[in-house]
Write a structure and sequence with these properties.
This protein has 16 helices and 25 strands. It is 38% helix and 20% strand. α4 packs antiparallel against α5, α10 packs antiparallel against α15 and α12 runs antiparallel to α14. A 6-stranded mixed beta sheet has the order 6-9-10-8-7-11, with helices on one face. A 6-stranded antiparallel beta sheet has the order 15-16-14-13-12-25, with helices on both faces. The protein is globular and about 75 Å long. β18 and β19 form a beta hairpin. By secondary structure, it is α+β, with helices and mostly antiparallel strands. It folds into 4 domains: 106 residues, Gnk2 domain, C-X8-C-X2-C motif (Killer Toxin P4, Chain A); 113 residues, Gnk2 domain, C-X8-C-X2-C motif (Killer Toxin P4, Chain A, 2-Layer Sandwich); 85 residues, 2-Layer Sandwich (Phosphorylase Kinase, domain 1), CATH 3.30.200; 232 residues, Orthogonal Bundle (Transferase(Phosphotransferase), domain 1), CATH 1.10.510.10.
Length: 656
């Protein structure tokens, strides 16, 4: 039973970690080129946005040529907290929406007790209601098992919505931040509920009400049953929770819950009815206790089985699957894919097949159907559901939902039309489509995706299986890092870890990880360096694997002064000096000395500037076949510390 308590404690700590992550940013619209006038004008507006919000009492609208920006803080903000929040939102937009003309970030920071909005567009939004797109951040916990009467709770919750909506839209405050309402409601059979609504003050009261009603409807239709959540739209925000978030309720008087609905008394209670009530009072709790006991026994057996059989949780790599996201019915998945028709099959991975599907709404999806009975597939399934629900970045593939019914474990992603990078870069005919500008955009996009995982997402994540087939390309050839089945979640103060069961793909795994099971963000940096060199050469690392490997071969040519010889002939019209700088960066990423490898933030700086002085690389890591043969022998002998390799660990998509 001690082991069960440990599991519950770990899950609880995980939820506490995720609780502070309030994802409300989104990038949409057209892109603009680096160093363009649009980017310069946006940066100019950003430079004074935080101070202008304070000067203008919490709301500021500005434009410079074709760039328009809006900033807003919640009512009752503290001066420095508002400034910090706006500056943080600007950093998020600069990092995650670096080249998008339209973006918005509703930043909710419980620690700093503040919320704010920063929005940029290439058209004026002042005085215009904008309902989409919406972002969400939903509690992972269900409310069903925590309350006795969901019908009563629903009635009280709806009444609290009405009160908050009225406070937000009928308020006659002279404050610039006029559309703002908070309510702390006492529920009859549940703890207090805290609710907040806010709109930008440039729209009308009726438009504000419509925007908030759309947010409430979105939560009610899609996420009802969860213990709190946030829905953000460009013009408004709706949030409710079971605790007083970021000080918004400091001076709010609690209001009682609405009265119970009137139920007429029965005129007489028969002896039989009374006996039935007594039996129910005695029997129902006993049955519930029995179910709880059976559940604990089952959990204990699962734990024991996982330890004895080296199953999905046998190593520290196991991550809880308690994270919430949209659940699809199997019937809908079957309808979308034509009962997994062979004609809709677009890929085959190590953990199952991938099918193209079309939802009733017309949206195209990619459906990964995990192989039945695959323990590694179960790990991947839980990892991706847990991690991708909390990750939003234009360079990460979007997980739309999952389905888990009977023996079926299914992941539903956005459909990415141009397959994976390896279908282009390693194909003699398609490689010509990858001009230097396209390759540059792919390399930079992958780097930004990794930076988000390592530093900006508030969930420090190590991917551990980055390679060309794990990088999907959309219709505009923008990259999206995919397949998080091998990923590891770190605490924010954790920088490295050690595992006995190493997973990944040979040739992309850093040598310290292969040899000793040590991994960190620098492990991903090494993999990124290999992919970068593959992009430069147009050749797969496995083509050099029987000798030294691509990193060591590139280092050998660099030392001999022949680095230009490895450049893909397709890039013959590109200035050699620019490509040599990228080879230089790639060699810095694959250095054998872990401490000498750069961080992804430093890599992005180097990629974006040809004036920064870059240090000289040291010897590249030699991942020779002898090392892998030794590990393979250990694996065959069943020794601790062996590799768990999966040459098809990725779902490789091909367009139809």
């Amino acid at each position: 039973m001690k082991d069960i308590a440990t599991i519950f404690l770990s899950i609880s700590l995980l939820f506490q970690t995720l609780n502070g992550v309030k994802a409300g940013f989104l990038c949409v619209g057209d892109t603009f080129l680096a160093n363009s006038s649009y980017g310069q004008n946006r940066d100019s507006l950003f430079s004074s946005l935080a101070s202008q919000v304070i000067t203008n009492r919490g709301f500021y609208n500005a434009s410079l040529n074709s760039v328009h920006a809006v900033a807003l803080c919640r009512r009752g903000y503290e001066r420095q907290a508002c400034i910090n929040c706006v500056e943080k939102a600007i950093r998020v937009i600069k990092t995650s929406c670096s080249d998008r003309m339209e973006s918005f970030d509703w930043d909710n920071d419980d620690a700093d007790q503040v919320s704010c909005l920063v929005r940029t567009t290439n058209y004026s939004t002042f005085g215009k209601l904008d309902l989409g797109p919406a972002t969400r951040d939903i509690s992972p916990l269900d409310i069903d098992s925590s309350t006795k009467n969901m019908t009563l709770f629903r009635q009280e919750w709806e009444e609290t919505v009405n009160r908050t909506l009225e406070a937000a839209t009928v308020n006659t405050s002279a404050s610039v931040l006029k559309y703002y309402g908070v309510v702390n409601a006492e529920f009859v059979e549940f703890r207090n509920v805290f609710m907040m609504m806010q709109c930008t003050p440039d729209i009308t009261s009726g438009e504000c009400k419509r925007c908030l009603e759309e947010c409430v409807k979105y939560f009610r239709d899609m996420f009802w049953g969860k213990q709190g959540g946030t829905i953000c739209r460009p013009s408004c925000l709706f949030r409710w929770d079971l605790y007083p978030f970021y000080g918004a309720f400091d001076n709010i008087t609690r209001v009682p819950a609405p009265p119970r609905p009137f139920i007429p008394e029965a005129q007489a209670i028969s002896v039989t009815s009374l006996k039935g009530k007594i039996i129910a009072i005695v029997v129902v709790p006993s049955v519930l206790h029995l179910f709880v006991l059976l559940g604990l026994i089952r959990a204990y057996r699962q734990l024991k089985k996982s330890k004895d059989e080296t199953s999905v949780c046998a190593e520290e790599d196991c991550i809880s699957d308690s994270q919430f996201m949209l659940r699809f019915d199997l019937s809908m998945v079957l309808l979308a894919t034509g009962d997994f028709s062979p004609e809709n099959k677009i890929g085959q991975g190590g953990f199952g097949s991938v099918y193209k599907g079309i939802l009733p709404s017309g949206q195209e999806i990619a459906v990964k159907r995990l192989t039945r009975g695959s323990e590694q597939g179960e790990v991947e399934f839980r990892n991706e559901v847990l991690l991708l629900t909390r990750l939003q970045h234009r360079n990460l593939v979007k997980l739309l939902g999952f389905c888990s019914e009977g023996e079926e474990d299914i992941l539903i992603y956005e459909h990415v039309s141009n397959s994976s990078l390896d279908h282009f870069i390693f194909d003699e005919e398609k490689r010509v489509l990858l001009t230097w500008n396209v390759r540059y955009r792919i390399i930079e996009g992958v780097a930004r995706g990794l930076l988000y995982l390592h530093e900006d997402s508030q969930l420090r994540i190590i991917h551990r299986d980055l390679k060309a087939s794990n990088i999907l390309l959309d219709a505009e050839m923008n990259p999206k890092v995919s397949d998080f089945g091998m990923a590891r979640l770190f605490n924010m103060d954790q920088t490295k870890g050690v595992t006995r069961r190493r997973v990944g793909t040979l040739g992309y795994m850093a040598p310290e990880y292969v040899k000793n099971g040590r991994f960190s963000a620098k492990t991903d940096v090494y993999s990124f360096g290999v992919v970068l060199l593959e992009m430069i050469t147009g050749q797969s690392n496995k083509n050099y694997f029987e000798s030294l490997g691509l990193p060591a071969y590139a280092w050998k040519c660099w030392v001999a002064g022949e680095a230009a010889s490895i450049i893909d002939p397709v890039l013959s019209r590109t200035p050699t000096n620019e490509i040599l700088r990228f080879i230089h960066i790639g060699l810095l990423c694959v250095q054998e000395n872990v401490t000498k490898r750069p961080t992804m933030s430093l890599v992005i700086q180097w990629l974006g500037s040809d004036t920064i002085v870059i240090p000289l690389p040291t010897i590249a890591a030699f991942t020779t076949t002898e090392l892998h043969k030794t590990d393979a022998m250990n694996q065959a002998k069943g020794e601790v510390g062996t590799l768990s390799l999966n040459k098809l660990s990725v779902s490789e998509l091909s367009p139809r």
